[in-house]
Design brief:
It is a single chain. By secondary structure, the chain is α+β, with helices and mostly antiparallel strands. It has 2 domains: 141 residues, ph1033 like fold (Roll); 177 residues, no CATH class. The chain has 12 helices and 18 strands. Strands 1, 2, 3, 4, 5, 6, 7 and 8 form an 8-stranded mixed sheet that branches. Strands 11-14-15-16-17-18 form a 6-stranded mixed sheet, sandwiched between helices. It has a two-stranded antiparallel ribbon with strand order 9-10. It is elongated and about 70 Å long.
């Protein structure tokens, strides 16, 4: 369920601001005057106005730990505040209310007051509203959080919690093959912020790695064999390399000639059932999207009768660019035009669907991708 809404003309806007215990401490250590977000959140940060409120949510233990007020327009700065990443999209703030983890307000205590808990297909799938920040919240939800935090400051109540959860311990899915697959905690299925686990020092590279990890998680949970691009096997995702977290195939089946095999082994993620490739994914999160498209087009050109489902996975905002490039004349002239054999999946759809599936992910089948994806065909051609 989306929490976005139009700005309330009669008062401030309210923005979700995610923190871990570590980033909350570093925020205070730096003077508690600056909140920061990743580079690709800059457009959103520029929408914040002086007097708006940031609702500080402590991930891991799912509690509201404070309220900040915006004191100046957004700005970009690479000066180091947080140890895990730069978070250059920034806004000046002052503390309105602040609590400790022990006295912070559990979000579930506000279940009856927040609209993010309403009209859910499953009452346990509420955490989708806490996947990334900054996120614009409805005024009534924002006011309810501010009031609850203010009351907790005046009458603090210590509530015990598992301190290990402050470190964002991963959760485990039991797959259809009987294996365990660990994935990030409830709030980490979104864009990286100071309140989430950063998967790399470069935003685009870390986002690419995060999507690879989610696709490997999903394929493994379905009981399929998984493959990650040969040069990415040792990428770090949530503190461990892919090769340590997943039972990656050491070699691909020898179903193709040497040249075709060299292309296939560099595709970002593959799902296999026995020797059959059930799905191939190219992740297009970087400025240039040609490398993945060229791999796909080379594969189609060399194997025109290939029946592998091919998917291009990219951020929502890059969808028009990806669709346009897939429809370029150079790709449309193939015996199997690329736009007819590739389908598009947005990052947000992948993340939200995986989040909604929760522990039921083991019962999904690869065919579900047809529902999550869309055709890449567009009117006209692009030179």
């Amino acid at each position: 369920m989306s929490t976005a809404t139009a700005v309330d003309e009669n008062g401030p806007s309210y923005w979700l601001d995610l923190f871990t215990a570590k980033s909350w401490q570093e925020f205070h250590r730096a003077g508690a005057t600056t909140s920061g977000f990743t580079a690709h959140r800059w457009t959103t940060v520029q929408k914040m106005q002086i007097g708006d409120y940031l609702l500080c949510y402590l991930t891991g233990i799912s509690r509201f730990i404070g309220v900040l007020e915006v004191t100046a327009p957004g700005f970009e700065d690479n000066a180091r505040i947080w140890s895990d990443a730069t978070f250059p999209s920034r806004v000046k703030v002052k503390i309105v209310h602040a609590l400790e983890p022990e006295t912070a307000v559990p979000v579930l205590d506000l279940r009856d007051e927040l609209t993010v808990f309403q009209d859910l297909a499953n009452p346990n799938y509420w955490s989708g509203a806490f996947r990334g920040s900054p996120a614009l919240w409805k005024p009534e939800d924002g006011r309810a959080v501010v009031e609850a935090v203010a009351k907790a400051v005046l009458n603090p109540t210590k509530r015990p919690f598992d301190k290990a959860k402050l470190a964002h311990r991963p959760r485990t899915f039991h797959t259809s093959s009987g294996d365990d697959v660990t994935v990030p905690g409830e709030e980490s299925f979104g864009d990286e912020t100071p309140g989430e686990i950063e998967t790399g020092t470069d935003t685009e590279a870390s986002e690419h790695t995060d999507i690879q990890g989610l696709l490997l998680t999903l394929g493994s949970a379905m009981g399929l064999k998984v493959w990650v691009a040969r040069n990415d096997r040792h990428r770090s995702w949530h503190g461990q390399s892919f090769s340590d977290q997943f039972k990656l195939l050491s070699e691909l089946p020898h179903n193709f000639d040497l040249a075709t095999g060299k292309i296939i082994e560099m595709i970002d993620v593959l799902w296999l059932d026995g020797n059959a490739i059930r799905a191939a994914f190219e992740i297009e999160s970087t400025t240039s999207i040609y490398s993945g498209l060229l791999r796909m087009s080379d594969l189609v050109a060399m194997q025109p009768n290939l029946q592998i489902p091919l998917f291009l996975v990219a951020p929502d905002e890059r969808r028009p660019k990806v669709i346009a490039e897939v429809n370029r004349a150079t790709f449309a002239s193939l015996k199997q035009p690329l736009m007819k054999v590739c389908r598009f999946i947005s990052f947000s759809v992948l993340r939200s669907q995986l989040e909604q599936a929760g522990p039921l992910v083991r019962y999904l089948k690869p065919e579900i991708l047809q529902e999550w994806s869309e055709a890449c065909e567009a009117e006209g051609s692009f030179d």
